UniProtKB/TrEMBL annotation:
Xref: InterPro entries: RNaseH-like_sf (IPR012337), RNaseH_sf (IPR036397)
GO molecular function: nucleic acid binding
Entry protein name: Uncharacterized protein
Domain of life of the organism encoding this protein: Eukaryota
C-alpha cells in the first residue's frame, strides 16, 4: 500500500487557494495492508449503478472525469465546483466540499491518503491461531474413556463434530456409552470448519486404535456418527488426486484398526434437527439417539471453540476486519451519492 503511486506522494495542489482541493494528509503507515472488502462488495452489486461502480474503484467523481474530452479554462462554468472553487478533485468532492457535507455525515473522516484517495482502510494480517494448552490432557482422557469400552463392548459409537468461527476451530467427540464429551482446539494454520470436522474423526479413530493396543480388544465395530458428508467422504476411503494426502491418513488409520479386528463404518446424521427425506437411522441406533449424540458433539466442539476464540488475537483480527469493511462501505456509498450529485450539477 505504501508503494502505491496514489498514496505515496502527496499530490496536494499547494499554494493555490482558489483550487477545490482535498485534505492534506500523511501517507498510510509503512507496511499497511488493505483487503478492499467494502470495494469488492459494492463492485459486485453495482452492475447497473455507475456512480457506485466508479466509487468502488475509487475512480470518476472529479472535474476531469466529468468533462473528459473537453479542455476547460478557468473561466468555464463547468470548471467551477458547487462551492465556487476551481477544478474539484475527487478528494475535494468526497471529503471537503461543503456542498456535499450532508452526503458524508455518517462517515468518520479519513486519517491518511489510503483512506482519502482509495477509500481503503488498513487492516491487520491474520495472526497465529490460539494455542490449546489442554489438548494433550483431553486426548489422554479420551483415550482412557475409550480404552475401557474397547475392552468390554462389541459395538462402539462415537459422535464427532467440528466448530469454527473467525478462523478458530475445535473438534468435539461424544462417547455415548459413557455419556462424556471431549473437545480440543485444532492444531495448525488451517482452522476451517471442514478441517475441524476431519480432526474430530481423526482424533476418534486414533484414540480407538491407541486404546486397542492397551489390552484385550472386544470391540468389533466402530461407527463414527458425523453430520458432515464431505468429511465422511474423505475419511471413509476417498483416494483421489486432490486430497490424497489427507485421505491417506484416514485410510491408514482404518487399516490399522482392521488389523486389530475393528471394522469402521460411518453414519451421517442431519445436523441441527433438519429433516431429510429418505434418511434412515442406523440399525443399532435410533434417530433420537443419533441426533442427541450429534448435538452433544456439536456442543462440546462449539464450547471449546468459543473458549479459545475469546480474547484471542484472531478475534481482535476479525473485529478489525469488520470495522475496516464497515468504514469502507460507508465511504464508498457516500462517494457514490456525491458522484451522482456532482454529475447532476455538471449536466445541468
Ligand atoms: Zn466544492
Amino acid at each position: 500500500m505504501t508503494s502505491c503511486g496514489r498514496t505515496r506522494q502527496s499530490q496536494h495542489r499547494r499554494g493555490a487557494a482558489e483550487l477545490a482541493q482535498g485534505l492534506d494528509l500523511p501517507g498510510p503507515p509503512r507496511g499497511s495492508f488493505c483487503t478492499f472488502q467494502g470495494h469488492v462488495q459494492i463492485f459486485e452489486h453495482s452492475s447497473t449503478d455507475l456512480d457506485a461502480r466508479y466509487a468502488s474503484l475509487a475512480a470518476g467523481i472529479s472535474v476531469w472525469h466529468n468533462s473528459a474530452g473537453k479542455k476547460l479554462s478557468r473561466e468555464d462554468d463547468k470548471a467551477r465546483c458547487l462551492c465556487g472553487s476551481l477544478f474539484p478533485s475527487r478528494p475535494h468532492l468526497v471529503w471537503c466540499c461543503p456542498a456535499f457535507q450532508e452526503s458524508r455525515i455518517d462517515v468518520p473522516s479519513p486519517v491518511n491518503r489510503a483512506e482519502e484517495r482509495l477509500f481503503a482502510r488498513a487492516v491487520n494480517e491474520l495472526p497465529r491461531p490460539p494455542e490449546d494448552t489442554a489438548v494433550h490432557g483431553v486426548k489422554a482422557e479420551l483415550l482412557q474413556a475409550i480404552a475401557e469400552l474397547v475392552q468390554t463392548s462389541d459395538n462402539l459409537f462415537l459422535a464427532t463434530d467440528g466448530s469454527a468461527k473467525n478462523h478458530v476451530a475445535s473438534w468435539g467427540i461424544f462417547v455415548p456409552c459413557s455419556d462424556r464429551a471431549f473437545a480440543a482446539g485444532v492444531e495448525g494454520e488451517d482452522q476451517s470448519a471442514f478441517r475441524a470436522e476431519l480432526e474430530a474423526i481423526r482424533a476418534a479413530l486414533a484414540a480407538v486404535f491407541a486404546a486397542s493396543s492397551q489390552g484385550i480388544v472386544m470391540c468389533r465395530h466402530l461407527t463414527i456418527v458425523s453430520d458432515c458428508t464431505a468429511a465422511i467422504w474423505v475419511a471413509s476411503g476417498f483416494e483421489g488426486d486432490v486430497i490424497e494426502m489427507r485421505a491417506r491418513r484416514f485410510f491408514e488409520l482404518r487399516r490399522s484398526l482392521r488389523a486389530v479386528g475393528i471394522g469402521v463404518d460411518f453414519k451421517w446424521v442431519p445436523s441441527h434437527g433438519k429433516i431429510v427425506r429418505g434418511w434412515a437411522p442406523h440399525p443399532r441406533a435410533t434417530e433420537a439417539q443419533l441426533r442427541a449424540w450429534n448435538h452433544a458433539a456439536d456442543r462440546a466442539a462449539n464450547g471449546c471453540m468459543q473458549r479459545l476464540l475469546a480474547g484471542s488475537a484472531r478475534l481482535r483480527w476479525a473485529t478489525n476486519r469488520k470495522e475496516a469493511k464497515t468504514w469502507e462501505l460507508a465511504a464508498i456509498r457516500a462517494a457514490a451519492r456525491i458522484s451522482a450529485g456532482y454529475r447532476a450539477h455538471c449536466e445541468s
